[in-house]
Amino acid sequence: MDDLLFKHHFTFKKRYGQNFLTDRNLLRAIVSDAGVDEKTAVLEIGAGAGALTLALAERAKKVISYEIDKSLQPVLAETLSDCGNVEVVFRDFMREDLAAAERAVGGDYLVVANLPYYVTTPVVMRFVEEGKGCRGLTVMVQEEVARRFCAKAGSPDYGAVTAAIARRGSAAVTRLVPRTLFTPSPNVDSAVVRLDFTAGGFAVRSEKAYRETVRCAFLNRRKTLENNLMSAFSLSRGEAKELLGSLGVPAGVRGETLSPEQLGALSDLLFAAGKSGK
């Protein structure tokens, strides 16, 4: 890969968080972790030099890969020259209309990506909240971010992003990846995490109400959930106590102690009371 990048006078750009993987065995393992097969359509965010794209193309039915850095066009053209099932889109995915991107994929799809660290959470949350045809994501992220995605209620890593993912499905780390396998080497180790939207998850009466309830629960970790409810939804103390009491939640608890399912039940009550999700 280094020879190819040198040939096309490519220079790494910090603003794009470019850290490329080249280990073919690891790349094929990531594709396997994602559950990609000959029937799978894949959306990749950040093609880079095309190493993961190439591994995806070996197994997937179709790959649509977004790349923000147009200087990688000649590199990708050479890397993917024999891949008739790959389309590279040279645009910023975060500015793309997701509904239009999903129509281009055509049906259900998986997201597989070595995500630039600076956009990891925004990209993942976009699919969690807006991805209609997305069956799940398998992404390379910072190890600490992977822990947050998979955290349990009450743990230090548990937060709003954990609860958002849990409503859609399950999350699990499939492998740890040391920083030494990247070019250039980042300052942190990474992990591959798989988010599966076909297993787990739960329904709520209003997705908007759930997002507002989750935001409230983690609004101020130093305050009790009761106080956060009063602040976020203009409830009286009596109303907040009554809501929590109906769920069997003890007085004085903090939001991060409630499971995603409990937060979902709370959001349903707030929605039914006309306090949230309007």
Key terms for this structure?
40% helix; 278 residues; alpha/beta; Rossmann fold; 9 strands; single chain; Helicase, Ruva Protein, domain 3; 12 helices; elongated; 2 domains
Tally of helical segments: 12
- Helix residue percentage: 40-55%
Unreliable parts:
none
- Provide mean pLDDT, rounded: 94
Biggest beta sheet summary: 7 strands, mixed
Number of domains: 2
Computed structural class: alpha/beta
Quick one: CATH class of the largest domain? Alpha Beta
Q: Any idea what the CATH superfamily of the largest domain is called?
A: Vaccinia Virus protein VP39
The CATH architecture of the largest domain is 3-Layer(aba) Sandwich
Extended strand count: 9
Strand content: 15-25%
In the sheet with the most strands, the strands line up as 4-3-2-5-6-9-7
Radius of gyration: 21 Å
Could you say what the CATH topology of the largest domain is called?
Rossmann fold
- Report the principal-axis shape: elongated
Question: How far apart are the first and last residues' alpha carbons, in Å?
Answer: 52 Å
Could you give the order of the helices and strands? HEHEHEHEHEHEHHEEEHHHH
